[in-house]
Design goal:
Radius of gyration of chain B: 23 Å
Radius of gyration of chain A: 23 Å
Order of helices and strands of chain A: HHHHHHHHHHHHHH
Largest interface: A-B, 92 and 98 residues
CATH class of chain B: Mainly Alpha
CATH topology of chain B: MetI-like fold
Number of helices of chain A: 14
Order of helices and strands of chain B: HHHHHHHHHHHHH
CATH superfamily of chain B: MetI-like
Largest sheet of chain B: none
Helix content of chain B: over 70%
Oligomer: heterodimer
Shape of chain A: globular
Largest sheet of chain A: none
CATH architecture of chain A: Orthogonal Bundle
CATH superfamily of chain A: MetI-like
Number of domains of chain B: 1
Distance between the termini of chain B: 24 Å
Strand content of chain B: under 5%
CATH topology of chain A: MetI-like fold
Shape of chain B: globular
CATH class of chain A: Mainly Alpha
Structural class of chain B: mainly alpha
Structural class of chain A: mainly alpha
Strand content of chain A: under 5%
């Protein structure tokens, strides 16, 4: 390649690489340094991450919530993705509307919507009370149940995109062949259709799990401080009980964990699927 | 095709999911008309006081204008950087393309709270030697949002570029077009919808960004989500329901129009 072509290549590629290098990678190294130097130099904060009972309980709760939310959003996403891909024209349009409207609305508005549904004076409790089914409001928000509902709601569209993409790439003739050989609709669905979407399901599970792990806004609002997840713990360690070192150490551990997870499941990742 | 239409069980399940997806957005509507000062369902009389509060309290309008300004600037920066990067990858196919793309997607993969902490570090470092761009300034927020939204812009622009037929670029090259002509007259016109989508998504992501903003602002740069957050934590202000209804309505109308137009295009060719 000629010299001028090389310089033009650099001219096009370098701005973004420099921008992210200076505004993202270098400051991240600063955070890594905090984790070793605040409040004093050493590995003290990492020892705390792996031994402190409070941090441990938050990690265990985070993992539990992430696994539950991955399961709930995958199952629900599968049902609506199927109608979006294989329904008739009207069903497809309605499914698309129901998937995309929440997707484009901010996480804050959606968490607030769930408060309006689930809180003591919210829609569900008001209805149940006025119908005389319950006398005291049910505790639906400000606890782990509320967090799981809110997070599932946030993550369904992200699960739908890879699943729908896998469903779209299924060759219609394979299904017709199965039907032609006398397989029932139900059996064709479970033994032919679903296995052909495993790739999309694994991709969706990975995206949902990784997103859920770093979730912050929904647990903070719907958990009401009673169901703290690891991301909220970082926030609290920095702004309420200034302990930057521990917040930084938790961040580094999170990044390493996700890095290992992604490296193990590398071949299922297709960035293009994430934006539909 | 008929054989694989969704059966009744799947349709019932999907309807339940659709209701689940829309319910919280609908539940906000009655709450926004409550006459009470706290989050509640209106019983009897409806009131517009919370919509009035949006107009009366200048904080809402100020934060909307601030969010617009930040969204436009950060989206412009993210789209320009992502377009250049995408062109570089597509035209030169450099040796470590996959690695370079992986690198620029980092802010998307790293958990938001870690990005928030990283950008908090950046802002405090910048603030130590200038007053313009740094912690709790609008330019600082725009910079941070550009970092967070660039990966999305890159993905959309690369998707658009990979649908371009390489032969048109080869033809332009064969006819003696130089690099600038190829980029501006041949490639960019072919990905203009991808670029527009990237700019729109970057703007929307900045407009609704809260995780990072929470870490890097305190009293001066109060964006709309930041203001909503402040009214959401302890005593819930129903004015948030009013602003939420407006945001939901705008989104729903734009999407319904887009889906309607797409269907029209799909059903009658020409």
């Amino acid at each position: 390649m000629s010299k001028s072509a090389t310089s033009r290549k650099i001219l096009l590629l370098a701005p973004l690489l420099l921008f992210l290098g200076l505004a993202y990678v270098v400051p991240f190294l600063g955070v890594v340094r905090w984790s070793f130097t605040l409040p004093e130099t050493g590995l003290g904060q990492y020892v705390a991450v792996f031994t402190d009972p409070l941090v441990q309980s938050v990690f265990i709760r985070t993992l539990r919530i992430c696994l539950i939310v991955t399961a709930t959003s995958l199952i629900t996403a599968y049902a609506i993705a199927y109608v979006w891909v294989r329904g008739n024209s009207l069903q497809r349009a309605l499914a698309e509307f129901c998937i995309l409207v929440p997707f484009w609305i901010s996480v804050l508005t959606r968490a607030f919507g769930w408060l309006a549904m689930l809180s003591n004076r919210g829609l569900i409790n008001t209805w149940l009370q006025s119908a005389g089914i319950i006398s005291e409001p049910l505790a639906l928000a400000r606890n782990e149940f509320g967090v799981i509902i809110g997070m599932t709601h946030f993550l369904i569209p992200f699960a739908v995109f890879p699943i729908a993409s896998a469903m779209r790439s299924i060759d219609e003739r394979v299904l017709l062949a199965a039907r032609g050989m006398g397989s029932s609709r139900t059996r064709t669905f479970w033994t032919v259709f679903v296995p052909l979407t495993y790739g999309g399901l694994i991709g969706a599970a990975l995206i949902v799990f990784v997103f859920a792990l770093g979730f912050f806004v929904t647990p903070a609002i719907l958990g009401g401080g009673r169901s703290v997840m690891v991301a909220e713990l970082v926030y609290l360690r920095i702004f309420q009980s200034p302990d930057w070192g521990l917040g930084a150490a938790i961040s580094v551990v999170l990044v390493l964990f996700i890095g290992i997870l992604l490296a193990l499941l590398r071949r299922f990742i297709k960035p293009a699927h994430m934006v539909g | 095709m008929q054989s694989s239409r969704p059966g009744p069980i799947l349709l019932i399940l999907a309807t339940a999911v659709a209701i689940f997806l829309l319910m919280p957005l609908i539940a906000v509507i009655p709450v926004s008309f409550t006459p009470a000062r706290f989050l509640s369902m209106p019983s009897g009389a409806l009131s517009l006081r919370h919509y009035q509060a949006l107009l009366d309290n200048p904080a809402w309008m100020q934060s909307i204008l601030l969010s617009l300004r930040i969204g436009i600037l950060s989206s412009a920066v993210a789209t320009a950087l992502a377009t250049m990067f995408g062109l570089g990858i597509w035209m030169f196919q450099p040796r470590f393309s996959a690695l370079l793309i992986g690198f620029v997607l980092l802010p998307l993969i790293v958990p938001p709270v870690v990005s928030a902490m990283t950008l908090y570090f950046l802002m405090t470092a910048l603030s130590s030697f200038n007053n313009w761009i740094g912690y709790d300034t609008w330019l600082g927020v725009a910079l941070a949002h550009a970092v967070m939204t660039t990966p999305f812009a890159v993905v959309l622009i690369l998707v658009a570029l990979f649908q371009v037929d390489r032969r048109i670029d080869l033809a332009a090259r064969g006819l003696g077009a130089n690099l600038t002509t190829r980029a501006f007259k041949v490639i960019i016109p072919n990905i203009k919808f991808g670029i527009a989508t990237a700019a729109l998504l970057s703007f929307v992501l900045s407009w609704e960004e809260i995780g990072v903003t929470l870490f890097i602002t305190s009293v001066n740069a109060i964006t709309l989500p930041r203001l909503m957050w402040m009214g959401l934590r302890d005593n819930i202000d129903p004015a948030i329901a009013a602003i939420s209804v407006l945001l939901i309505l705008v989104t729903a109308i734009i999407l319904a129009l887009r889906i309607f137009i797409d269907r029209r295009k799909a059903t009658d060719p020409q």
